[in-house]
Every structure is written in structure tokens, then in C-alpha cells.
């Protein structure tokens, strides 16, 4: 699928730039139009299942609501002076502009999470790391170190389960007080970290004994190319931003 | 930055980042619920936990760049695992790591007492708050409320990153796995001449 084949580094930088540019505005209309466009791009040009997408977005919806009501209850009162009063009840003051700002803060959370999901759900971890090395010149020692560490994830999870069961068999009860909870937590974290560090050392020895030096390279077993479609993707996001900006300025 | 590092140090940095990336993501779920209930201030109480790998990595390896790199790698790993905060985590991780790194740099990478570690946690709190002010638009909120958020974040950084980080690293040191790293060298040096 199209979005899945965009160069990961290009995708990463485009999305980061977009988020930073969007953060300069606090405009729910702009955000909303941009979000609609993003939805179209996401679902027409990728193989993301909408169920996964919805499941991952749900917590952010919750978070956005938290932002909206906080901004309504605790607005920056300096800004409220001279604005159009909408609603006043005791110390709770709501103006048209503060309502827009609150909606903007909430909508911002939603747009940022949609942008992130566009990246996360269409990028394979290994290709991402290879692209970081090839396009963004991440040092190879660091990149392969990160990949090696990432490979330990399932092992660490298994170890955690083994420890849990071992504790159960030996009759370690559920922690009740806060103090017990902390020491219970420590009884997992320390052994997990200790074994992770031992694994790291073994891996480093193994890599070096097989001749890994971490010198900069010019040739790769698996090249991650830069293609025309990468430029098209950047242009697409750029156009979408200009359209959203224009729609928002016409409407207001 | 890593030219003088041993490969084992780089991989230790990565595995620390992997373990804490998982911890970070778990706390992210907790944080989301708290933000839904309490608003943005919900994050502040647990914010310090997100700086802890900087403190632990720097305290163990005692090298320039350890705090910054470990946090950055944790951010990359969080993205690799796949979550909806996504790529922004790498930027915020770099900013958090830079805050702790600045404090360690100010101590010239020579002092590793509890106070320095707590200040490093607060350093991350400061940089991450400045970034959050911009990216989350705190300007629209009541300045008193924002100040309260900042104070809670500072305390959280000092306690959950600085204090907890030192406590965990010292516990880890006692297991003996850190014997070939700078933390052991310094601790042994400190205990010379002392009757044991």
C-alpha cells in the first residue's frame, strides 16, 4: 500500500514538522478540516484497519475531553477581558473565544494522535531503523545497539512471567500497603534489569567477535530508497495544511 | 558522541531504554486516565517517571551523553513498539534527556550524589515543561493553574526520577552486574581504606 512504502525518515520528519507548525495555531476549525483530510489520506492510501485505529484513538479522545473541560474551568483570565460573553455562572466565565480555545486544545490532541497513528501503523520497526541509519545518518553502532535491545523485548516479557509464577509457587502474597507494593515492584525490576544487562554484554561480545566494528558504511544489504512518492507525500500534507488554513480563514 | 564508548555500554544503554520504554508506556495509560479525570494536571504527578532512564543510565555509565541518549533511545523504542503518541515522543524524549544532561554537564560529570540526581530530574522537568507549554498550548490556561502544574512536575522529577532512579541503580549495583561500569569503579574507589 502507498503509505506503507513511503520512506520512514521522510514520513517521520514530515509528521514532526506538521505537528510543530500546527502547534503555532490554536484553531479548532483549521484542526478539524486538517483532521478530515488526514482521515481520507489514512484510510484511502493505507491498509490500516479502522478497528485498530479506533481502539488506539479512544484513549486520546478521553484525554481531549480532559483538556477541553480544564480549559473551560481554568481559562487564562488575562485573555478573557474584552471578549464576547457567552455564559456566566458564579466564577465560571465562558466567552466565545475561550470556548474556541478549549475546543482547539481538545481538537489538537485528536489531530496529533491521528498524525502519529499515520506513522506508527504504516511503518515497520526494522525499516524505520534502517532508514534512520541510511537517510538520517544515525551511527551504526547506536542503531544496531537499539535493534539488538529491541529484540530482547519478548525475552524480557517471558522472564517477567517466569518470575511472577515463581513467586506464586513460593506463596508470595499480593502486596497490600504502599510500602509492600514498592518492594514487590522492586523485586521484579531489579532482576529484570540485571538479566537484561547480562544479555546486553553477551550480545556485545557476540557482535564484536563476529567482526562488527560500527564503522560508517556506504553500501547496505538492504537499501531503503528515496523515491518520487516521498515528495508526493510531503506535497500532499503541505497542500492539506494550506487548504485547512484557507477554509478556516474564510469561515471566520 | 559515542565514538569512545564500548559497544557493551551502547547495548546496555539500549536495553535500559527498552525496559523503561515498557514502563513508560504502562504509565502512559495511567496518565491518560488521570488526564481524563483531572485534566492536564493529571500527568504532572507521575511525570517524573518518564525521566528515570536518563538518571539511571548516567548514574551507571557516568559519561557525557548517557542521559540524553538513553532517553532518546527510549523514545525511539516507544515508537518501535507502536503507540498513538508516536513520533512526537522522540522529540519530547530528546528535550527531556537534554534537561538532565545539562545538569550533569554543569556538575562536570564528576558528582553523582543524590542531590545532583534530583536536580537532573528537575532539569528534565524544566525543559519538558517549556516544550509542553508550547505544544499543548498551556497559554490558554489560568497562569496560577499552570504554575501549580509546574511545581508538581518539578517535585515529581526530583522524586520519581532522581530519588527512585538512584534507589534502583544502587539495588542493581548490589547484584554485581554493574562491576565493569563506571559506577563500580567510583564506588570501589570511595571505599578504599575503609575497613570492610
Automatic annotation (TrEMBL), chain A:
Subcellular location: Membrane
Claim: Endoplasmic reticulum is one of the keywords in the record: no
GO biological process, one term: cobalt ion transport
Any matching Pfam family: CbiQ
GO CC terms: ATP-binding cassette (ABC) transporter complex
Membrane topology: Multi-pass membrane protein
Transmembrane region(s): 12-45, 52-74, 109-132, 231-251
Keywords from the UniProt entry: Membrane, Transmembrane, Transmembrane helix
Chief localization: membrane
Protein name: Cobalt transporter
TrEMBL record, chain B:
Coiled-coil blocks: none
Transmembrane segments annotated in the record for this chain: 12-35, 41-61, 73-95, 115-134, 146-168
Keywords assigned: Membrane, Transmembrane, Transmembrane helix
Pfam families to which the protein is assigned, alphabetical: ABC_cobalt
Domain of life: Bacteria
Record protein name field: HMP/thiamine permease ykoE
Record organism: Jeotgalibacillus campisalis
